Amino acid sequence: MIRHGASYGMTLRVASALSFSLMYALMKWGATLESVSAGEMVFYRSLFGLPIVLIWILSSRGGLAAISTRRPMVHVWRCGLGVTGILLIFQGLRLLPLADATTIGFTAPIFATLLSILFLKEKVGPHRWTAVALGFLGVLVMVRPGAEGAPPLAGLLFALGGAFVAASVTVTLRQLGKTEKATAIVFWFFVACATVGGALALIDGHSHSWRVIAILAAGGLAGGLAQLLMTTSLQHAPVSTLAPLDYLQMVGAVILGWLLLSDVPTTATLAGAALIVGSGLYTAWRERVLSREITPPSGSAV
């Protein structure tokens, strides 16, 4: 049963999903117009997203005190994983169509299930194993090994690597979230991304036209807004209610890919996406029945 105020949380989550779609679409668009490295994408995403995060922190209870931490080394580990994950995701985005890259990102719950067995010693029954198998089948349908016109293998490997790291971040956040505030977790992650992304941009970055810089900056603003909306939504509704709404990112990716990039998803992409979404929704339903913590379906946790 949806508790009081959940409708507001659901509205925020829908806005978050669409904002994430806009961020990825703008980053992809910028990289299509000019050569933009994954490091540059991370830098612009963090540089222009950080002011929104800071406004959110300053307006929250406690102000800047909310970014203090009692477990700095765990933050370092989380940030290291997160920065690695977002670099892999953006590299996959550079090589794949927008819809394909977005869909692959939603395999994170599959990897989270496997990691929870290894590190959290969770017991996985036949229902979750069925969901895992369904999700991997969706990936195979999209990949189409050996088929003509299949997505670039390198792009798929980068995207899958990003999803795997995102799942690792989720497992880490389950532990970190027990003692740390969301404001601290988000803030230090953005700082880490801006630092590493800036260093990489100096190494392999390029000069860009003002048009592309504006597009990348808008993508960063959309990413910061998406993070704020996603985190705030959790204050008004449980994850079990909100998680299925994250799949609207796929809808946004298809529409924006068509409008901005003239990309039309293939039948294999749509079929694979349907299987991956079905896997995620089945897992979310099963976890809700068992009253267990649900893994967010997207890679946005990185």
Describe the structure concisely for a colleague.
The chain contains 12 helices and no strands. It is mainly α and 302 residues long.
Secondary structure topology:
Layout: H1 6-33, H2 38-59, H3 72-95, H4 98-105, H5 108-119, H6 126-143, H7 153-176, H8 182-204, H9 210-233, H10 239-242, H11 248-261, H12 267-289
Helix pairs in contact: 1-9, 1-11, 2-3, 2-8, 2-9, 3-7, 3-8, 4-7, 4-11, 4-12, 5-6, 5-7, 6-12
Identify the notable features of this structure and list them briefly.
single chain, 302 residues, mainly alpha, 12 helices, globular
- Largest sheet composition: none
- How many DSSP helices? 12
Helix amount: over 70%
- The rounded distance between the terminal residues' Cα atoms is 30 Å
Roughly what is the average pLDDT, rounded to an integer? 85
Q: How many strand segments?
A: 0
- The assigned structural class equals mainly alpha
The topology string of helices and strands comes to HHHHHHHHHHHH
Radius of gyration: 18 Å
